[in-house]
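Quick one: structure tokens for this chain, please?
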Amino acid sequence: MERVRWTFPEFAANPRNVRLGLATDGFNPYGVLNQHHSTWPIFVFPYNLPPWKCMKKEYMVMTVLITEDPGRSINV
């Protein structure tokens, strides 16, 4: 198994620093494929928790909900 190389190992070594993961995926809420409307939720996961906890629903936070085409309004 290959070891992960951290870009900033001194940051990850300090337990007071918060490490966050970001996830997003767009979908069409109305199911009509020819519409240009889409919704993009953006979730943040705390990586300071143990691996069996960091992806649980109780610990993820939806930080932004983009309700337009992200190509035109991604700077929210």
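The two ends are 40 Å apart (CA to CA).
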